[in-house]
């Protein structure tokens, strides 16, 4: 598992948790399978650019945000 | 083929051509198969985030650049 894949998953998880969403909710909003979202977050599945785009749209962030440096996410105030 | 996949391919091609590289050269620098680079540029293959990262590193651009709005690339002066 590359650092990129691990960081991508960690970023998706951090953004999801900052929104207080479950994996089920993120999967539904992104039009993905719930277990696949779990695999992506754990870094055990490598997302395609289409999946990355779906996740970014659901999380309302530019897709580049999911692929760049590890993200420190402040929980909403 | 989604617009994202088509635009990703077009952006990779535009950046490669702006560097006057052949597909062989880009494939070599990115550690990818030449025919796969061709499929990606034509939008007939969907890159993973790992492939997108390899291409971005080879082209020396942030990976987000390959995934965001269609890119108009000025040939080097």
Automatic annotation (TrEMBL), chains A, B:
Domain of life: Bacteria
Domain HTH cro/C1-type stretches: 12-66
Membrane-spanning segments: none
Native organism taxonomy: Bacteria, Pseudomonadati, Pseudomonadota, Betaproteobacteria, Burkholderiales
SMART domains: HTH_XRE
Name this protein carries in UniProt: Helix-turn-helix transcriptional regulator
UniProt xrefs under PROSITE patterns: HTH_CROC1
SUPFAM superfamilies recorded: lambda repressor-like DNA-binding domains
Pfam families on file: HTH_3 (PF01381)
PANTHER family, A to Z: HTH-TYPE TRANSCRIPTIONAL REGULATOR, METHYLPHOSPHONATE SYNTHASE
Keywords for this protein: DNA-binding
Annotated organism of origin: Paraburkholderia sejongensis
Tagged with keyword Nucleotide-binding: no
């Amino acid at each position: 598992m590359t650092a990129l894949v691990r960081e991508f998953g960690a970023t998706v998880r951090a953004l999801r948790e900052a929104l207080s969403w479950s994996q089920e909710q993120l999967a539904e909003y992104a039009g993905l399978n719930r277990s696949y979202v779990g695999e992506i977050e754990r870094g055990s599945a490598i997302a395609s650019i289409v999946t990355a785009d779906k996740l970014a749209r659901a999380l309302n962030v530019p897709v580049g945000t999911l692929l760049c440096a590890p993200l420190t996410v402040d929980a909403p105030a």
